[in-house]
Design a protein that fits this description.
The protein is α/β, with parallel strands linked by helices. The protein has a single domain, classed as Vaccinia Virus protein VP39 (Rossmann fold). It contains 15 helices and 17 strands. Helix 14 packs parallel to helix 15. The longest helix is centred in the C-terminal third of the chain and has 17 residues.
């Protein structure tokens, strides 16, 4: 019999020793990783270029006309793993909430199908398929990163033209401890970016707030159509990286796009920092603008990595739309929903929230079994928010089917989910 206190210490030690690498970086060829500098805490910083799969002229025409992007043909790489999907409590349609009985019994009904003869979890490796190009990539031998002087990248004129119009350039770290996962790029942020580009008419000319923005890729994409994007997270080093990425991609927003303002927003604090001596603090004018004009909030799962050891999504807040990332730590999940509750009550307009999450199976020492506890807690919190009756706000929750086109190169697996929450005052 293991003492509960010793068990808690065991899990804490395991957590602190974990290092994680995003699937996004794992599947990018070595030749695309350029090490450009060391950050303030001595971590290597890499520059990666992510190609936009679009026809820019057609997209802009459709944006002006208010049309949806249904004519763009993109090959989606979808990993068909329904046994994992069902074991985490999602039904065949992929749209229904878990009822309380289902949540209590998850995650074990079909786990047996994933085990080998000895009872160990069999990990099925996904095929390395890239939609960006069909040519064979060089074999992945040892990584020899090339250290560049700032601004010294050398490309041909044709490459420069393509990069200018069709590339998102992001500085990031790789293989970080769990507490620094926000410095990597995660798949959930790409799902959110796809939705933003597909439904650009919903974001057009609005004010958006992103929570837990990490490297800022979702904020950058949003700024291509929105008027103002408040890109928020915590940690000076992370926010500095995010600000650099905004500057690297000004070409995407310079013509008709909006402004990205990188700010600190701590979910564990009730108030926004207004101390001018603190980097990335808020001015009174910015706070007033945030509450008066925001109509969309969104998130992606970088923040969830801190608890689960595996990536997830990204966060933004705008008066029209809120997109969220699924957090794998129960305390972070609670802090997220409290922050959403507080923000939506302070906004002067109705708000739409979008949650982009990735369900994950995890083996825990506490249960000595494979579970989906964090996902269950997230769904409980989502249900509680919808049931909330405080006489001031009502929250309507519904899933969004991820059948929209893919505008960035990544593997859109079935475990990625997008949720929509409409927060409106009670009339």
């Amino acid at each position: 019999m293991v003492d509960p206190e010793e068990e808690e210490v065991m899990e804490e030690i395991t957590f602190k020793s974990d290092t994680v690498l995003s699937d996004v970086h794992l599947n990018v060829p070595n030749r695309r990783h350029l090490m450009v500098r060391l950050n303030a805490v001595g971590q290597p910083v890499f520059l990666s270029q992510f190609k936009l799969l679009w026809n820019k002229d057609s997209w802009k025409d459709n944006q002006v006309k208010g049309k949806k992007q249904k004519d763009i043909q993109i090959e989606n790489t979808v990993h068909d793993d329904r046994s994992i999907q069902e074991s985490c409590g999602k039904n065949s349609s992929g749209t229904d909430f878990l009822n309380e009985n289902e949540i209590q019994t998850c995650p074990c009904t079909r786990i047996e199908a994933l085990l080998d003869n000895d009872g160990d979890l069999e990990v099925v490796r996904r095929p390395r398929v890239f939609t960006e190009t069909k040519q064979k990539e060089p074999s992945r031998n040892k990584v020899h990163p090339k250290i560049l002087t700032q601004g010294a990248e050398h490309f041909s004129e044709e490459e420069q033209e393509n990069i200018y119009h069709n590339m998102v350039k992001i500085e990031h770290t790789m293989a970080t401890p769990l507490e620094d996962v926000g410095k990597q790029v995660w798949r959930g942020a790409f799902l959110l970016a796809d939705y933003i580009l597909f439904q650009c008419d919903l974001f057009k000319s609005c004010t958006v707030l992103e929570l837990g923005a990490g490297t800022g890729i979702a904020s950058i994409i949003t700024a291509m159509v929105a008027e103002t994007v408040y890109c928020t997270d915590v940690g000076e080093d992370l926010l500095t990286m995010c600000e650099r990425n905004v500057a690297l991609n000004r070409n995407l927003t310079a013509t008709e796009g909006g402004t990205v303002k990188v700010k600190e927003l701590d979910w564990l604090k009730d108030d926004l920092c207004t101390d001018p001596q603190v980097p990335f603090s808020w001015s009174e004018e910015e706070i007033s603008d945030l509450y008066a004009h925001t109509t969309i909030i969104m998130a992606a799962d970088e923040v969830l990595q801190e608890a689960f050891g595996d990536p997830g999504t990204l966060l933004m807040i705008c008066a029209d739309l809120l997109d969220l990332v699924f957090f794998y730590d129960d305390d972070l999940t609670d802090a997220l929903f409290k922050t959403l509750y507080r923000l939506t009550h302070n906004l002067k307009n109705a708000c739409t929230v979008y949650l982009s999450i990735e369900k994950r199976l995890n083996f825990t020492l506490r249960h000595l079994d494979i579970t989906c506890e964090a996902y269950n807690h997230f769904r409980f919190s989502l249900n509680d928010l919808q049931k909330l009756r405080d006489g001031k706000m009502k929250f309507i929750v519904e899933p969004i089917e991820a059948t929209f086109p893919q505008f960035l190169v990544y593997e859109r697996i079935e475990q990625l989910e997008l949720w929509k929450i409409v927060a409106a005052p009670v009339s």
